[in-house]
From TrEMBL:
Organism: Geodia barretti (Barrett's horny sponge)
Annotated GO biological process: negative regulation of fatty acid biosynthetic process
Name of protein: WD and tetratricopeptide repeats protein 1
Top-rank taxon, per record: Eukaryota
SMART domains: WD40
GO terms for cellular component: Cul4-RING E3 ubiquitin ligase complex; cytoplasm
WD repeat windows: 44-76, 87-130
Keywords, in A-Z order: Repeat, WD repeat
InterPro entries: DCAF8, WD40/YVTN_repeat-like_dom_sf, WD40_repeat_dom_sf, WD40_rpt
Amino acid sequence: MAANIRQLLDMRQRAVDPVSDRRLFCKAHAHSSMVERLGHATELEGHRGCVNCLEWNSDGSLLASGSDDLTAIVWDPLAKKQLASLPTGHTGNIFSVKFVPFSGDNQLLTGAEDKEVRLHDITSMETTRVSYSCT
């Protein structure tokens, strides 16, 4: 009986403690038994260089990839289809891609070895802003 009460109290604590929830999520998410169950579902072809980064949009319906070929590609992973290939204008390998929140998944940020962060409009296929970092 005491063990059941303790379990209930632990569950209740997790329900109201975001720190505990986050710790539990991180432990389960990166646990070796979880990783071992992952499999190769498909291969998306489009980049001419190695892919360095991937990013899902908020609802998991789109995937963005950044590559050594200096392009970012937006994919429909369920249809296994390339939706847009963005010529980013970077002069170094792309190591970060991110869908811009609240943009309706129409904007993508890329960060690269050239020390630039670029904002791209996926619909118009244009780079709309470039920011430079310290050297």
